[in-house]
Every structure is written in C-alpha cells, then in structure tokens.
HTH araC/xylS-type domain-containing protein
Amino acid sequence: MRVTEPHRVVVLALDGVYPFELGIPTRVFGSADGRYEVRTCSVDGRPVRSGADFDIAVRHDAAVLETADTVVIPPCDIEAILENGLPEPVSAALARIPVGARLVSICTGAAVVAAAGLLDGRPATTHWNATDRFRTAFPRVRLDPDVLYVDDGTLLTSAGAAAGVDLCLHLIRLDHGSEVANTVARRCVVPPWRDGGQAQYIEQPVPRTTSAGTGAARDWALRHLNLPLTLDDLARRAGMSGRTFARRFRDEVGESPGRWLIQQRLFRARELLESTDLPIDRVAAEVGFATGASLRQHLHEAIGVSPLTYRRTFRAGSAPAPKVRTAMTS
C-alpha cells in the first residue's frame, strides 16, 4: 500500500495539439502503478482543436496547473507563435505553474516554452524539421537538434513524437529508478531507452548496400556485455569487414560502435547498481569494464557521480536532476 501522494502531472492542451503526443503522458505515467496522477487541461477548460479532424474535450482549465508537480506541453499549432509570440491567455496559463515544478515539452511544444522566455540561454531540443524556424524565432536558446531529449533540471525538452515517450521514461527513471522505468516500458511495449539521437531519423538517402544490417550483432553484444568485445568481434558477427561494419553501424545508430558499447555497459551497470548489492568490481566485470576504476571513470564522465553515490541515490528512491542529460546518458 502506497503511503505517499502520487506525483501530479498536468498536460496543457493548446489549439492544434497532436493527439498522439497528447496521450503519451497518460499512457506512460499511468503505467507506473499509481506513482503518478495525470490531468489534462486547456487554457479555459473548453474543447481544443486538434491537429486531426476532431476536437478534444478536457475536464480541467488552467487552474489545475497550480497543483502540478510536472507540466507537459505537447506539440501544437506553433506557426502563429513563431511569428507573433504567445497569446496572452497562454502566457497567463503558464504563469500559474508553481515555482519548482518541472516543465516538459514534447516535440514542437518547445516553441511554447521558448516563446515564454523560459529557454533563453538554456539547452533544448525540438523536432529536427523545425530547427531552422526555431533558431530564427528563438536565437537565445542553445538548441541541440541532434539528441532525443535534453534534461536541464526543471526544464526538459524532447524531439518529435516517440521521443516524448523516451523523455517520460527518463523522468520515471529519475524518480523511481531503472527497474520501475523498465517495467513501464514493457507495459507500453516500447524500449526502455533508444540508441542514438535524431540524426538517425533525419531524411537522407538510404545507403546503397546489399549487406545485412548491424541489428543482429548489436543484439548479440547486449547478451555478452561481460566479454571484452571489439569492433572486429561485432563485424564478424555481422559478416562484414571492420570498416564496412563501422560505416553501417553509424548509418543505423547515429554513432560509433565503441561509443554505443560503452553506453550499453553503463546502462546495464546502472541497473545492477540499483537492483543488486554486488561490489563495484563485480558490477564492472558483469558489464565488461576491466576494473572498478574503469567503471568509476566512465560513469563519472557520463553522469557526474561515482558508482557508490549513484547506488545510494537510486536505492533510496530519489535522484537529483543533472544539469544536462540526453537520452544517451540517461
């Protein structure tokens, strides 16, 4: 039986809202066994025009924002915002968000946050297809269009559509650890994290090749992280030369095999730190780092803390938000 109040998530639906992204917070946070309570509102409590051929009725107006621990802004019709800024009613609604509440945007919802001046001088991301217009409209934002999401403490932004799922899982991982986030991911039938950034989704010519992809080799590597894997090992699994494999891998994943492998080892190490009492050297061996010192170095470079500090934080059930964190370091 839970004795703490659930974390209140309020989703602000604006005109032109995309129905899929609007439903992400309810679907993801709602799968966390009562740890979150999700409410959806519009500025005035009236139905909002969606980006599809129907309107969406909500049960709350902007007053519910005052009760939020986390506010999520899905993508909406941002053309007028890019040209003329926020309508006054939307600005007034955002002003009702409590100090200290997390503010999260999905896809082009970042334009709403930026138009309110809340992203000035801060890192953020949005859908890669909106990058040029976003930079023109909000030149003071430190836009990074290559990542799936950015965590800048109480301000978090994500790229298009499914990256909103990634970000919601990231928040659950911060709040309750990897085991809970992984359980939620399984219930939603989505991966607990995705490799690479937006680069792998930007429209570009498909590489002309008849060779198989690198997916099978990656799956094999994830089952054998304890081994001292090399590029040649993975290339042999894929039936390619090392050079061809490295090129195909970057085309498919968006980064090098070596960097990807380190990240997968860190993901698994963090799960073990959260869910077991294994000594640090044993955790390092289980995930393929040669020594506990190597694990300490890589984990500190990735998230700025030692394995023991990470374990104490997440085994206790709470986690400090880092200054900047993307999907690849979450």
User: Anything to note?
Assistant: The longest helix spans residues 257-275. The chain has two domains: 7-188, 205-317. The first strand starts at residue 7 and ends at 12.
